[in-house]
Amino acid sequence: DRDSNTIEVFVGRVRKKLGIDCIETVRGLGYRLQAPAGDAA
């Protein structure tokens, strides 16, 4: 169907706006947010 890649498009747009790699794709499960490297919390 036409909406089969809605999540992929949304995640791609968020990644582009953030400009950092903090969204990790977990194959077979989905996505995971993580702190950028070198960011002490």
How far the N terminus sits from the C terminus, by CA atoms, comes to: 41 Å
Alpha plus pi helix count: 1
As a percent range, the share of strand residues is 15-25%
Shape designation: flat
| Percent range of helical residues | 25-40%
Category by helix and strand content: alpha+beta
Major beta-sheet overview: 2 strands, antiparallel
Give helix and strand order, one letter per element, not per position. HEE
| Whole-number mean pLDDT | 84
Assembly type of the chains comes to single chain
- Rg over CA atoms, rounded to whole Å, is 12 Å
Number of domains: 1
Q: What is the number of beta strands? A: 2
As residue ranges, the low-confidence spans are none
Give the strand order, joined by hyphens, for the main sheet.
1-2
Write the layout of secondary structure elements.
Elements: H1 6-18, E1 23-26, E2 30-33
Antiparallel strand pairs: 1-2
How would you explain this protein's 3D organization?
This protein is 32% helix and 20% strand. It has one domain (1-41). A two-stranded antiparallel ribbon has the order 1-2. With 41 residues, it is of the alpha+beta class.
